[in-house]
Amino acid sequence: xxxxxxxxxxxxxxxxxxxxxxxxxxxxxxxxxxxxxxxxxxxxxxxxxxxxxxxxxxxxxxxxxxxxxxxxxxxxxxxxxxxxxxxxxxxxxxxxxxxxxxxxxxxxxxxxxxxxxxxxxxxxxxxxxxxxxxxxxxxxxxxxxxxxxxxxxxxxxxxxxxxxxxxxxxxxxxxxxxxxxxxxxxxxxxxxxxxxxxxxxxxxxxxxxxxxxxxxxxxxxxxxxxxxxxxxxxxxxxxxxxxxxxxxxxxxxxxxxxxxxxxxxxxxxxxxxxxxxxxxxxxxxxxxxxxxxxxxxxxxxxxxxxxxxxxxxxxxxxxxxxxxxxxxxxxxxxxxxxxxxxxxxxxxxxxxxxxxxxxxxxxxxxxxxxxxxxxxx
Length: 377
What we know:
Elements: H1 2-8, H2 14-30, H3 32-41, H4 44-62, H5 68-96, H6 102-107, H7 112-164, H8 186-215, H9 221-233, H10 235-249, H11 251-268, H12 275-302, H13 310-338, H14 344-369
């Protein structure tokens, strides 16, 4: 929707428009510090229901929004708040689930990476479905009914989640909202710092992947939305294959080469000057970032001593990362504006942030197991 907003609200700078999505992402992640603890305390189902209602309500109210401030309240605040209530618990649930069936036990213990990888493919699948819906319906139905169709899709998906998702670990009623002892662990600090830098760059690239195609390469809006589908579609197999491999070698070990390749690809954006080259860049970028995002919750679970604290620690990490996710797109947009509309400065910044992510993730692996190559972690 960012490209559509930029085309219809021409009096508002791109960096300002990007705050709509940034607020939504920030609330989705920062809410994890509260909702993650709700999972550990045994309140998963109520939080899932409330979050689902708020998000669907936000989308339907977004469909009747015509001004910037209205979109900030509906898409930015309400849908973000709803996502913040159910996102972290839902992800942590897969990390901590155990079944009485010995066969299924493997998928949530020794095959936790595969389980989470399969779960995160929904993110990439949504990144394909939603752009297709918007591209096909927006010219025919207009913004209002296009948004309502998206709302009905969300309603159906979330209804399935509410009906079937259930926690299996016994609740941990006592305990603080924040597990401050985590910050005394060097591996946790370095890992979250690496995740923070990665999302700083990642959300800028995702938000502006279509804008670059339109403004720098002269592609039409319809063609540019195809790139959003490509960057998400290519990620699907890598969100499954890479976590599956990580079950054998360890998620932290797998994260190092993935982040290194992602860094190299990020710097390659500077060399893109053709539509064909941009398609290639978007495809490889989508594969590497998809692999990274599928590994991050698995790796965090692997460095958490107790499974009944995964929800809390994952929520803490998301709360911190929310600030990089929120500021990344506006900062990139501001750099673009300062550079006369060019993407060069913002691309360099995003690539350097990805490089720092690699450095921190490598440091986390060192803090966990030193330089022992064969250590699974």
